[in-house]
Amino acid sequence: MALVVAGQVRASEFYYVVFNIPPLADVHFPSPNAACQSAYQYDQSVTFKAWAGDEELEPLPYEAPHIFQSFPPKLLKYQCDTSAKVTYRDENGNITGTYTLMNGYYINRQGNDCKDGQYYNPVTGYCQTSDQEQANKELGNPEHLVGTVSCADPINIGTGNVFEQETDYADQDGELSFSRTDLAPDFRIP
Fold this sequence. Notes:
Blueprint: E1 9-10, E2 15-18, H1 32-52, E3 56-59, E4 66-71, E5 75-89, E6 95-110, E7 119-121, E8 126-128, H2 130-137, E9 150-151, E10 155-156, E11 162-170, E12 177-184
Antiparallel strand pairs: 1-8, 2-6, 3-5, 4-5, 5-6, 7-8, 9-10, 11-12
């Protein structure tokens, strides 16, 4: 007797890329923080040093990246800001001014672990084959399906399915609710 279990594979192998620094553009970082730290180090040792010339350069503290744009589960973009302070002195060593240098970078999450013959479905976050796509298009709320155009109740224009969801009761705390869903497939007579 053999037990066979089949299912979808969750896509999970992502890496992070800093696009607008040519020496780092082809590097796959394991985290947005690692990518941002590399951008910070690059700016302190190359970019800001070149901008400051012979003036005194003081790196400002590293700031961890923050989420700039997110459309889960696939699209995730971070903002990474780097900065340093330049101090200008006259020939006697007196400070004549300071200037803060700043750079901003986008770090994009990329990749997945889909096998050959599969593609990444950004709505579900799973790898799937093209034969699974049609079944997904015909089920559930069409607003949550990639490439689906809806109108009215909403009605899935591609399949004619009507999807309605009603909440019958919801308490004030939001802890308890009763809702019902009606998915009416298209029963046109050929």
